[in-house]
Design a protein that fits this description.
15 helices, binds 3,4-dihydroxyphenylalanine, 19% strand, 10 strands, single chain, BirA Bifunctional Protein, domain 2
Amino acid sequence: MKTEAELASWAATPWPELGLATPEALEASLGEFDAALAAARPEREAWLGRKRGLVTLINQNWLRLAPKEWKPALGAALNALRLRAEERLAATEAQAQPAATAWEDLTLPGRPALAAAMHPMLAVRDEITDIFLRLGYTVADGPEIETEYYNFEALNIPAGHPARDEHDTLYVGPGLPQHLLRTHTSPVQVRIMQHQPPPVRVIVPGRVYRRDTPDASHSPNFHQIEGLAVDRGLHLGHLKGTLDHFARAFFGPGVATRLRPSYFPFTEPSAELDVSCIFCQGSGCRTCKQSGWIEVLGCGMVDPAVFRFAGYDPAEVSGFAFGMGIERLTMLRYDWNDVQRQYAGDLRDLEQFR
Ligand code: DAH
């Protein structure tokens, strides 16, 4: 028990933050704390700091000296203040944190996102295009609805020519001139030559149509890349050199090539390009039908008749042309044995080629 004098001197000691040394004063202090919070400046150090925080200072310098009979009430009030201060500081601090970074569990595995990817066929188209762009070719296109003239006539396939039957043409409506869905990209050769003087070095990727029933190797529409080079003095050696380069750039430096004589009405001479089988390296397998060779494209030296249709003088210029099926090359590149899979858009299938 303190003496009267001690009590008087203690009570007369002002605590700057608290004023009167009573439980009510502590409650008032809590009010002050609430106001500080409302003003959005809760300061953990000032209130709960272990060394200089208000609660510690009250405890050490003041509550210890309090009159015994007040101690329980003062202690309880001080404890309540500490708990409420702790609670509110924690609440405002949690609010001040961006919730996502505060609570995101960074060890969780990520949610899988479906990423877009290039379709293998388009990748092959671009790859082939790039090979020729690096040789100085440019890319062109032409209409998918064509006239008989460009699709056949100007390519040296006159009416009644047996090559017309092979093309299983889809005709578009009645009327003259007769329109059709182009059966190959070759008509663009003539359109380009009509629109620019030689020299020409161009490739034409595009969609073509034929009246075929879909199966593992047929589709009523598919895709080709046409190539045309015209200049003074171009000969078969230029064709062979260009296609050799293409075959090695596309299939790899190890492939062998050969030009096998063939026939197309718009080239003379005509050939087909074979590459040594990329699956068995030429020793013979199912894909190359035990021949060791795989057919890749058709080609030849532009027929003088085509130059005349296009308005070029075959005495002045010569050129070569080639045409390949994109689906076929995609099938070879990815060992995709059924062309229908290239159109199905089945993500489970496509995912293998990312
Ligand atoms: N147009 C031919 C086809 O669709 C492919 C072709 C062969 C194109 C020889 C050419 C070529 O340019 O020279 O079957």
